[in-house]
Amino acid sequence: MKEQEQEPEHYHKNFVNHIRPRYVPDEVLSVLYTFCLGGLSFLAFIVLGATGILLMFHYLPGDSSGFSSVITIASVIPYGGMIRNIHYWAAQIMVVTVNLHMLRVVWTHSYKSPRQLNWLVGVGLLIFVLVLDFTGYLLIGSQESGAAATVALHIVELIPSMGMGLGKIGLGNPSSLSGSTLVVYVWHCVGLPMIALILQLYHFWRIRQDGGVRPL
Amino acid sequence: MARQLEWTRRSVLRLAWVGIVAASALTFKPLIQYLTSDEDQLRSPLVFYEKSLAENSDWQKASNSRVWVRQDTLGIMAMVATCTHLGCEVNYHPEKKEWLCPCHGSIYDSEGRPIYGPALKALPRVAVNRQPNGSLIINTSKQVGLDARL
């Protein structure tokens, strides 16, 4: 308390100074406890956001334009191949680290009280990451993307009464030769990442609220 | 007494910030090149050749396109230097009077007929017209036969 009184007034109002905790207990610095898997996943998410925005400048969603614009980005646009590769591999890494992160949380019993809610948020985030990965796969627009879109569409349409509508809202009208549609593009670039980002920030805030990372 | 260099949490984080800013500065030029690239913009099928063309000259390249023009005793012809195999730009070698494809080794003779390699079709000839000011206008979307001349 005494220490706080000596600090200048703007320190308490500054948001940046509140991003990091005031003190860090020694035990939580152990890398072998968390393996930084959550942090690595978030880093991959930031990289995906930055490279994804860059790809949006040259990518053209659509049945006939999707695949050819990906090929153009990868082979003709300066540094386009590098940006696409970083986006692709960051996505692969994120799916792996997110799953390992879940295994770690189970291993260290971190899903138990008082962290039940944060476990559920994490399960939600896992689904978001997998759907983002899947929609990214569709946006490549290759024949495999078209096949995957067709399978997904047929599964969604099995849901009684609302299946057709859900398929339209979620996937649009993908052809079986190219899964790239404007609808998938909007979900992949705006809808899903926005919700995932908000959920992640809530996920991090809850860690601090539930007492921080610490060995039980 | 030498001052002890102390690596506090604060100084490590400050060094990390400097590293991030320096690394970001290195991405400046690549980003500008990426964002200003117009390689994927739609191009007009019309190409202009404004220099004068001597009779019985060898193939001459129109700037900023793959179009080459030539004039023989029968007239002016225009050709697109895109390999009919997989679309690479072929290079003209005037000393051999041959077109060589750098990708898969297709070779075309001076007239653009395939003589070696995976390409089976001749290099495409396109329509050429003379504008009122004397320069040539080539319509790359309009293919013509091997013996078409202006």
Outline of the structure:
The complex is a heterodimer of chains A (216) and B (150). Chain A has helices at residues 2-6, 10-13, 31-34, 37-56, 66-75, 80-107, 116-139, 143-156, 163-171, 182-209. Helices cover 68% and strands 0% of the residues of chain A.
Describe the structure.
The complex is a heterodimer of chains A (216) and B (150). Chain A is mainly α. Chain A contains ten helices and no strands. Chain A has helices at residues 2-6, 10-13, 31-34, 37-56, 66-75, 80-107, 116-139, 143-156, 163-171, 182-209. The longest helix of chain A is centred in the middle third of the chain and has 28 residues, at 80-107. Helices cover 18% and strands 30% of the residues of chain B. Chain B has two helices and ten strands; from the N terminus they run ααββββββββββ. In chain B, the strands form two sheets. Chain B has a six-stranded antiparallel beta sheet, with no helix packed on it. A four-stranded antiparallel beta sheet of chain B has the order 5-6-7-8, with no helix packed on it. The longest helix of chain B is centred in the first third of the chain and has 18 residues, at 9-26. The model of chain B has no long low-confidence stretch (mean pLDDT 89).
